[in-house]
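Subject: complex prediction, re-run

Hi both,

The earlier run crashed halfway through, so I resubmitted it with identical inputs.
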Amino acid sequence: MKIEHIGIAVLNLESSIPLYEKIFQTNCYKIEEVESEKVKTAFFKIGDCKIELLQATDESSTIHKFIEKKGEGIHHIAFNVDNVNNQINRLIKSGIESIHQQAKEGADNKLIAFLHPKSTGSVLMELCQDKEIE
Amino acid sequence: MKIEHIGIAVLNLESSIPLYEKIFQTNCYKIEEVESEKVKTAFFKIGDCKIELLQATDESSTIHKFIEKKGEGIHHIAFNVDNVNNQINRLIKSGIESIHQQAKEGADNKLIAFLHPKSTGSVLMELCQDKEIE
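This time it finished cleanly. Structure:
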């Protein structure tokens, strides 16, 4: 496992991107909308990891609900693994609950799954792997 | 800048360490008490980054207050920089508030400073550098 990115929930990418560019001294290198998740994302490269800003595009988005409840801030940690489905199976067998029972498509050309924070110390964890090019 | 570690506030290291060992499939490699911060910390190596679990050792600890308000979960992101004091000066000049006006001693043989989350999108950010061996 390695840390692939840290997801940060923001109200507004337009004002958050220049703020984080100032802090990190690096430019946002990609903006991508993930319609299925009702989010717009912006990525920064920080060493070997990424920071992903997430803005809700609809009130039904989990990011909208997160910000309503907790305000802006760190939303999740994503870990790169060789095979998301293998890891989900391993974790479920060891008593960890997974929100997704199998990998699904995510932003940034990845297959992803989220573990349930109630079994991971209230830390929302994403597992991800690069999609194989067909 | 690179991500040095992610800090996670926990109620009890004794129960959290085996949980995270199970998730990460790696053993906690160091437990360290930082008396000045009133915390006990446990470290995991995840690729080039670390996960730091933080348990309060006293009710006056910021970790105790964080958990009382928000519950267990992700507490901060720490970024490795060449020189913490230079970065604090740069950030203050560009309008970012810093909790510490100059670097101080932290866990894991580092010099550290925290930026004020009210000027960093509600994300608590730590800057750190390795202490020079004298």
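The helical segments of chain B are 13-24, 62-70, 84-93.

- K.
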